[in-house]
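Sample intake sheet
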Amino acid sequence: MVTKMTNSIYLTVSEVAQKLNLSVDTIRRWDKKGLIKSIRDEYNYRLFSIDEVQRIQEKYLGTASGRGFYVLTSEPTSYKTLELFAGAGGMALGFENAGLQHVLLNEIDKHAAKTLRTNRPKWNVIEDDVQNINFESYAGEVDIVSGGFPCQAFSYAGNSRGFEDTRGTLFFDFARCVKQVRPKIALGENVRGLVNHDSGRTLSMMISVLEDLGYRVHYKILKAQFHDVPQKRERLILIGVRKDLELPIYFPKEKDYLLSLHEAFTNIPESEGIAYSSRKAEILSYVPAGGYWRDLPDELQREYMKKSYFLGGGKTGMARRLAWEEPSLTLTCSPAQKQTERCHPSETRPLNIREYARIQTFPDDWEFQGSITAQYKQIGNAVPVNLAYHIGRCLIAMLDQETPSPEMVSVEQEMPKPRQLTLL
């Protein structure tokens, strides 16, 4: 069975295994670990992109890149940005490292806002509800408006009012800022699940709103582990370019290497962090690196899982210990949540603050403010700094109207049409 989607051939697991001389179990294990993603065809067969599996085969079998931990930087430019929902500054720092200049950052959370001001006293940080801010004074002064707006359900009453239909959502305030400022580029960031949220209607509405505001829109799912980030984290990046401008649209191209946790944690500073209860630590001590609750003896499985033991689903995040030779699983707002455990690869404890920050590629001197719980939340919600750097470099190349570098993908060459809502 052969299915062609967005310039890639999708085959059944046995067909991919045969063509690439891999075992079926290996491909399924990579799928389970989140290194590759399967899809379902109209007959409910699980299919895999042969190109994606081959990339993992080449990257994963040489588990170390030899690069160690680093934060990417480039020379500054004169291009200016305005960012909403800035959080602890992952996207803002990545954009700054790429060469962009911030004229305003908005964040409502007091701890995150303090983190921004502590690390960059010269940044113009407005700590307030975005609904209270008028952005008209920045019209004509900003090249890029960006924001990782939370994905809220929209109410569809069939009125088809576009921009007005999004009132009451934080996306509305992002769109209002774009309308008031009229930047050359509007960039939205969100979770991968936005693609299928409300059967795709939410993303379709967002694209329609930006198009009605005068923007040509494309999007792509970026996998952080292929962009100098030691973490299997997927983010949806939505880019709109003003229709009166002849600007190209570029997305960062996946690298030919992965960064492992071992590389990320080299020479890491000491840090505070939360701890397990004594009994939980005792149980998790039986989980091997890369393992999870099913690696426990049955009696411990039942004790730890309780009622979840009898429920369906893999529950692969429970009692999960990370592996040294792989990127981390996606970080959450806490490393000790039972459903999404993030246990240190060799020590029986949750990841600490600096380990969390390294995985998100924050520099070691980036100070997070607030309680430990608040710090974990800020880091877990952040855009990985190096991923934002690569996005920023693409935005600069777009504004310069440069030919895309080998590290970039031109939307005109490789993207589907924006309204098709086809997952790359």
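Comment: Residues 269-381 form a domain with the DNA Methylase; Chain A, domain 2 fold (CATH 3.90.120.10). The first strand starts at residue 2 and ends at 5.
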